[in-house]
Specification:
The chain has helices at residues 43-69, 75-90, 100-127, 139-153, 161-171, 176-183, 187-213. The protein is an all-alpha fold and 214 residues long. It has 2 domains: 42-128; 139-209, Arc Repressor Mutant, subunit A (Orthogonal Bundle).
Length: 214
């Protein structure tokens, strides 16, 4: 047997040459890296992570729908909120997929609260009388009312103070509804008051015409 002799001075304490010593971890399996480990980042790892995310979303969807339906007015709103939660969750690159269900459940609850707040504001806005659109007014009728108001204003000295105020508000371009709101009365009451003023002024005018004709 032709083996090279190694001097005793080059042997270690176990009687073996240093080159023959094995590392304690030699042959040990390499531990697998978790999917969220960014040291293994790459196109394939990112694709696998996204695939795992959407697969977990499909599995969590029934639970999330039950959470949303308890807080939403319609099933359609619950569907929209769950899908919105999926999209927002996909935007988090450092999301811990091990706690995905807890994250999506809390996100769905927050989105339900936001939707309820939005619907509450929308109801208050649509029911606020000051924000409702005004009634459509015929431009020709409005022009005639303003011309008549100017004519009445020229004879305003003969009117009582209350009637005079109505005529002045009409000459400023206010509609019957606006006048009623400022005087805290009804639109019909304002219309009737203006009608009586017209009759009174026209009666005075007829009397003047009769006197001049004599």
């Amino acid at each position: 047997m032709n083996s090279k002799l190694i001097p005793a001075s080059e042997l270690d304490e176990t009687g073996h040459p240093p080159s023959s010593r094995r590392s304690p971890n030699a042959g040990a399996p390499t531990p697998s890296r978790p999917l969220n480990d960014r040291t293994a980042e790459g196109p394939h790892a990112e694709t696998a992570r996204r695939s795992t995310y959407w697969r977990e979303c499909v599995l969590a969807r029934p639970l999330l729908l039950r959470i949303a339906r308890r807080r939403c007015r319609t099933s359609a709103d619950a569907e929209d909120i769950v899908h919105e939660a999926f999209v927002r969750g996909a935007e988090f690159r450092d999301l811990d997929l091990g706690r995905l269900r807890q994250f999506l459940s809390k996100l769905v609850v927050h989105l339900c609260v936001d939707e309820a707040r939005r619907q509450s504001v929308e109801r208050r806005v649509t029911q606020h009388r000051g924000l409702l659109p005004g009634a459509l007014v015929d431009p020709a009728e409005l022009a005639c009312d303003r011309a008549e108001a100017r004519w009445l204003a020229s004879r305003i000295a003969t009117l009582p103070n209350g009637d005079r105020q109505l005529v002045l508000m009409l000459t400023e371009g206010l509609s019957n509804r606006d006048i009623a709101a400022q005087l805290r009365t009804t639109t019909q009451c304002t219309h009737s008051s203006l009608y009586r003023i017209r009759l009174r002024v026209l009666g005075v005018r007829r009397g003047q015409i009769r006197r001049r004709a004599r």
